[in-house]
Every structure is written in C-alpha cells, then in structure tokens.
Amino acid sequence: METAQTQMVSFVERILLATDCSSFSEGAEQEAIFFAQACGAALTILHVIEANPEFSTIGHETAREMEESARDHLEKIHKMAANEEIKAEIVIRHSDDPVEVINEEVLKRNIDIVITGRRGRRGIKKILMGVVTEKVASMVPCKTLIVPKDFVIEGDGVLLATDGSSFSENAEKEAINMVSRCDYLKYICVVSAVANAAELEEAKQRVQRIKTRIQAENKKITIETVTEIGSPCDMIVHKAREKKVDVIIVGSHGRTGLQRLLMGSVCAELIASSPCSVLITK
C-alpha cells in the first residue's frame, strides 16, 4: 500500500486490531498492518476468547484449545508486522464480555483507533455487523474503522455522511483533514438526507458550507454534494456503491444517547449494509 493510501485516517500512534481470527477479520488485519507501517504506530493485536467464568474442567480444556488455535493465527499477524518493522504485541483475553475487554485495552493503552472486521463468528442473519462489533464501535472512546471481509482501501474516494448534528462535526473535521493530507484522494461525496421538504434548504446550505471548506484545502479534488428526502442509510449506501468509494465517514453519539447507538439506528444500519469500510469518528 502506498503512503498516500494510508493517509486516509489522521496520524495515529497506537492502533488496536480486534480480531476474532475468522475470515471476516482478514480485511481488518491487513489494513491494521498497512496503517501501522505508514504511521510508525504501535500495534496491539487483540483476541478475546468468550468464556463463561463458571466453566467446568471440560470448559477450561476447550478454552485452552481455542487459545492455542487463536495464537497460531495471531502469530502470523505478528510476523507480518515484524516484517514491516512494526512494534506489535499479541494480547489474548478470556471473558464473557468481549466488548468490555476491548474497551479496557483501549483505555489502558491510550489507543487512537480500533480496527475491526464487520462480522464475527457469531450472530444471526441481519444482526448489524455482529453484536460485538456494533457495541465496540459505539462504546470505545476513540474512532473505529470497520473493514468488510477481504476489503482493501485503495484511497481514491470517500463519502462523508452528515446530519448537521454536533456528532457530525468530528466526521466533517476528519474528512477535511483527510483531503488536505491525501494527495491521492480524487473524489469526495458529501451526503445529507432529510425527513421532509422543510429541512431540505438547511441541508443544502450545510453541504455547501462543507464543500467550501474542502475546496479551501484541496482545489484538485472532485466534490459532489447530495441532499435528498428519504432514508439516510439507503442514500449513503447507494452513493457509496455507485461511486465505489473506499471509506464512509460518519459521526457517533459516543458514550451517550439511547443504548449508545451510533447516530440512532441509522449508523448501525449503515455499517451492516455498507459496501466499503466505515470510519466512525468521536
């Protein structure tokens, strides 16, 4: 991956890769290596083995076998990191609450970004990107990059989704910083969906304001603005697929709000449906 491509997120010093060691995490694992190498960042490779604290002896034996299997996979990632001269550490934890473990490691290590796959081993069809990943993205205090299986970020185009709320401000800042850093970036689409016609004019003014700020940072980039009445998720996913963007940038409610959902149900639905990576800012 070229340096320009890895400038798709702000400079970071500490990255946490949360992997379930399944094929669903392969895209995230590769991107974590790319970003760590480009930024000279330290990489924590975390795997959480879900274990009931009341495991019997048989349960403990099963957990031990699971850890041995996971460690083989994690060692391969560690070797990839070493080949790129990345300072990396493997962390294996046993817990019945993987989300809490990930959050603990983020706080303990002062992590700048969590990179994870969209789905894990568990979950029912149509559950949003796996229960664990959804909770991680909404709970951790840092930004999260969610990467679909086998997805590679090329660095050509991004989509900024904004609803005009204070939670979108960090997403806007991330997008503007991105276009100022990444010369390789050719296209950005700014999308704002509204519920009714009364909100349309305000949305148009909002995306125009963002467009002006982007143009001030990068006069060569192609900027498209989209304001329509309808489902935010449907509009964002449609444009992302149509333009084949690499990353959708969206804000988060962070640690507050109803069940800590990301921009309500919209962002959670978006993550489940997105054809590309999703960067959730805080």
Placed side by side, the strands forming the largest sheet appear as 3-2-1-4-5-10-9-6-7-8
How does the major sheet shape up?
Answer: 10 strands, mixed
Based on the coordinates given, report the CATH architecture of the largest domain: 3-Layer(aba) Sandwich
> How many structural domains are formed by the residues?
2
The CATH H-level homologous superfamily of the largest domain: HUPs
Low-pLDDT residue spans: 1-6, 120-130, 254-264
Q: Measure the end-to-end span.
A: 26 Å
Shape category: globular
Instruction: Please report which band the strand proportion falls in: under 5%, 5-15%, 15-25%, 25-35%, 35-45% or over 45%.
Output: 15-25%
CATH topology of the largest domain: Rossmann fold
Q: Would you report the number of β strands?
A: 10
Helix % is 40-55%
- Listing every helix as H and every strand as E from the N terminus to the C terminus, the arrangement reads HEHEHEHEHEEHEHEHEHE
Alpha-beta content class: alpha/beta
Nearest-integer average pLDDT:
84
Q: In the CATH hierarchy, what is the class of the largest domain? A: Alpha Beta
- Tally of DSSP helical segments: 9
Computed over alpha carbons, the radius of gyration is 19 Å
